[in-house]
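Hey,

The postdoc asked me to send both predictions to you directly instead of through the lab channel. I've kept everything plain text so nothing gets mangled by the mail client. Protein one:
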Amino acid sequence: MFYYTVNNPNDPVSTEIVKANRRDLEFWRRLRPSDDEDLATSINKICARTGLSRKLIAACLFSVCFLPQIPNFLNLVEKLGHLDMARINAITKAGKKVPKEKRELFDAYLVNYLTPTTEDQCLPQATSISAMMRKFISHYCPIDEPSPTEAKDALRFRRNRRGSISITLDASDSEATEVQAALEQMAKDKKTSLGAALLNIVRGLDTKVVLNTYGTDGTPEYLEGGTWLTKQQMEFWKNRIICTQELDNEMCSYTKQYQPTKKIRTLIKGRHTTCSVPGCNVHVDQCQLDHIIPWAQGGPTTPWNIHPLCVFHHNQKTDGRLECYPLPDGTILFVIDGIPIRSVPDGPLSRSHRTWGTKFGAYMERKVAA
């Protein structure tokens, strides 16, 4: 039987977590007000008795009301007991943006995404689930909304008491990624701070910024930095592609050097969005590329032996307090306190989330094998 580590039937702690998840869901079902009760009064009563925030209460009540709209997913949640309210709330928050005629598709998407496909699989974090929900909506329920930067008050200046001015910019994920990349490149070129880099750009100094998109030549789906692109953003970014590189065969690439090549780095950042340690949300751009089998022990510099680790977990692994092993299917097996956990890559080049260039036979073979 396949299972996530949080609902491992042979682990007593996991068994308690499953019970707690089911208990929490039932708790909010019991607290659901009747349809004719006053909304604000109902939330106030629950807030006074639980000490929970009104925002959280409203989110949990909405979840128990919305879940019957996606019955197959609800059956999965009740069967496995693997999702806590934070993850369920992230899903239902996205679900309310899905039109009724697309909810059956959304239901199937959720079941496919949150059904374990191997033993000891790591359950996706709420942030990863939210990202995948945004991906679904942008692909199947696109909404023509103006960019946040187009709003009249998107850029705000506030004078502080000490005489300086703080600047706030509201931007979409892809726009923010572009701004950050430009500032970081300028700071690197001029060996200065990000603030001084901004001034350099305003004053007309040039800097060359290279950002990778992942997808086909004419359909970029994901922007380096952690953003699944909407259809509108795809149209924008595909016109900015100046060169392409084939990464399908790079899993077997190899270098004699300790440092990965540029292509290997691009591949790893396309396979992982965060530190590969289960439960860690540190972004891949803030991680170090680590040899799973250590270089000093003969571990090769090749994609199957390279993964991102944040500084904290890299130090743990170096100290021998964290064990990990590469597996033939591209996942990574971590052993934490004697417990095996499979870390499944969740980036655009990962096996589970790659959506382009998929052949029918390969897709069906993968589904049957799962």
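Protein two:
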Amino acid sequence: MHSGGQVVVGVDGSPASLAAAAWAADEAELRRAERVRFVMVSGDRTTDDGARAILDPLTSGFADRRSGVEATSEVVRGDPADVLVRLSADAELVAVGSRGRGPLAATLLGSVSAKLAAHAECPVVVVREHRGSGPVMVGLDNSPHSRAALRFAFDAAARYACDLVAVQVWQDLEYAPVVPPLDYELAELRDEALRGLAEQLAGCTEAYPDVEVKRIAQRGHPVAELSEAAEQARLLVVGHRGRGGFTGLLLGSVAMGVLHHAQCPVAVVREGSD
């Protein structure tokens, strides 16, 4: 985990970014961070008054909580994604809304949130809607990025005092996709997924004895199964890249897929950034 002691949130006045700001404010308190930093990026000085009209109520509202966490706000010049990636180097995490303002605001995932999730040096949480209840869910696949996501998820579940749901999605044998697998083959694949879950969870369950853990080994496509399983989740955590991905890829297909489709906040955790 980074030692900056701050939670950074990108704000642009859109409903999704305001949900991210509310999520980040709660998260900063739960983490006992040194500060929550509300940031709006603008390339036009003529919009500064409008930016302050959005930022000032966020900082003053947070100050009214008297939580002991400092709240700051600033208008920064530059490209929004580039600025937030730079700020991620000194943050515990960065939060953004799933969509922002602009001509493509109707898309499921904004360009800023996608670029930030791909390049940030700390965990990134993309917020579509702010939720204060439900379990923390984590998608696992035995990869190093999956293990980093698991540590992040356990820490979050302990902080929220909620259950953790660990999900490993397995798919049919690849050598004969048009031939239905035999029952014993399905059983073997499910057993292998359950063994993988047990092995990955072993160390963390000992470190977090108060976190209740539920294990799910599910057949299907990882993106579809994780998105559906997380419908009632408070937070879904995934690794930056998964097993079998090309190491040169900046963001894995599963991470990108759940960012597009999951309705709950999604944390993307890079190996070594948790």
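Summary for protein two, as requested: Residues 102-109, 244-250 have pLDDT under 50 and may be disordered.

Thanks,
C.
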